[in-house]
Every structure is written in structure tokens, then in C-alpha cells.
Design brief:
heterodimer, A: mainly alpha, B: mainly beta, four-stranded antiparallel beta sheet, three-stranded antiparallel beta sheet, 41% strand
Chain lengths: 55, 291
Amino acid sequence: MTEEQILGSLLQQLHLREVPVLDKGDVEELVIPAPVRAQYVALLKRSHGAPSRGK
Amino acid sequence: RFSQNFREVAGRFLVSEASTHLLVFRMEQRLPPNSELVQAVLRLFQEPVPKAALRRHELLSPRSDRARVTIQWLHVREDGSNRTSLIDSRLVSIHESGWKAFDVTEAVNFWQQLSRPRQPLLLQVWVQREHLGPLASSAHKLVHFTTQGPSGARQGEPQLELHTLDLRDYGAQDNCDPEAPVTQGTRCCRQEMYIDLQGMKWAENWVLEPPGFLAYECVGTCQQPPETLTFKWPFLGPRQCVASETTSLPLIVSVKEGGKARAQVVSLPNMRVQKCSCASDGAPVPRKLEP
């Protein structure tokens, strides 16, 4: 698994041609809503892989 | 037929007069546990055609002395309906006799996907005209194979040969031993490989979760099958240690819309290795059994 493959797959899934320009200010106040986090955890469980190391 | 929308479609019904018989093979204990099926061969004994019948045939149809033999796998489903799948088909000559081999690996692959308790392996043998049409000969009527007897000991009885590899020798391990360094002698296994997303410049301010993940990778080598096997299947490449099952990786990313950033979940397919296996390049991939 290479960095390029991960980036390529992410751009493909988001239908983007290049990495979006986001700076610290954009995400500083960003709070992950509970439904989004619940969807993420459900997908994580479904992929029944070893839990990724959280923060 | 009387609809104004469809031009009448004329057709001809061609009599194929196929002769068929059903072979039943009990498969319990035929496939060793923890083994990989390399090939399944069905051997049928074609009985010699009496000379007088051959002479009569040559007088009637000098042009064609072959018949088409087709093997189908018969699946009797829970609801009692039948489904057949074409497995192998070839022409045989009425001038020949003796053992004829057909590759029925796909039928056994299908059978292995049945839920237990599994029915016996049912193979339908069709003997048909070489081709349909007014000029086709009736050579197929002269092709006879020895059928299965009740006791299973008759001379020329149909044989089902199963070639397998013992995965204790030719397969992969599960996870690598984290204490042991991977060397040339390490047998194929799944090794931990942590991908640190936080360390990737492009992920900054974009990928919010996870900061990294265990991707795993397949390392080590595989034992090559014995010479006899590789000789029989020259198209098979060497057995290699590959990721045979993978799983997706969910992420939470920030997406900017209308000047404002919001969080979104996205799932990247085939990002993590679930299982490593030893597989030959060029080996046929078993077809999935349709529900």
C-alpha cells in the first residue's frame, strides 16, 4: 500500500482531480457531527478490520 | 404471431436427439480438509463401435464421424428446481475408444460452494450430433460410454480424479510472528504495516479520521508444487504470496462547500489486507455459484 494509492483512491471516491486547498482556519472550528461519526464507526465495524488507531 | 408490431419470425425445429446420462459421485471425505483443489478430471470409457455398425455408418454419412460430448453440472436447489451449468464440451470420434478425460474442476468448485449437508456431485453427460442441420450425421448414436453400475466396481466405470495440494505444505500462514524477522525462508504470512496519515502532507486539514491505520501486507514465499503438477499445467505461473481477501477503509474528511467546511464519511475499497494466500498466476478463478 503506497501513499499514492491511498491518495488516488481518495480522490477517486470523492470525484476530485486534485487535493482540495484547505487551511487550518477552515477546520479549526469544525466539529464532527454525531451522525457522521456514527456512520464512520458503523463502516469501521462492517469492514471488520482491526480498529484503526484513533487520536 | 398476429401482432402487427412483430414481423413473424420463422424458425425450424432441429431434432438434436441427444443421449444423456447422469453420473452421481459421492464426495464425502473425497476432498481432504485444508486442501486446495488444483484440478478435477472426469474419465469416461468410450466403448468401441462394432465394425459392422461403422461400415453402415460410413455408407450413410461418409462426411461426419464425430459427436459432441458435453458435461454439465446439475444443481438440485432447495426448492426442488434444477439448474445446469456448462462445464466442458468436446468432439469425439466414433473410430476411437478408451478413456476420455474432461476437466470438471468448475463443477467441483461449484459443489464446494454448496451449503452443508451437500448433495452428491451430479454430472450430466450429453452426447449430441456434431452440428445440427439436415446434413448432420447420426454418428452420436454410435458413441457410448460405460455407465455407472450400482456397485461401482464395473470395468471402465466413470472415474472422478481430484488433484489437490495440501495447504499445510503449499498454503500460507495467518499473521506473521512479530518476533521473527522475515527472511527468504519465511512462509507467506500477513505482516502488520501501519500507515501514518498524519505524516502525509496532502492529508493535512483534509483527513480528519483516522490519523493512521493498520494496512498489513503479505510477505514471505510459497512452496512450489511438485514437478509433475507444473508439468501438467504449463500455463500456471509460480505460486506467489498475495492478498487474497481485502477490506475497505472508512475515513472522515473535511469538504469545503460554499466557503464553509463540513465533515463527510468516505470509504476507500481494498485498503486493508484481511488474508494472504499462495496463488498461481494464471490459475482459473473459481466462478461464484449464482443464488
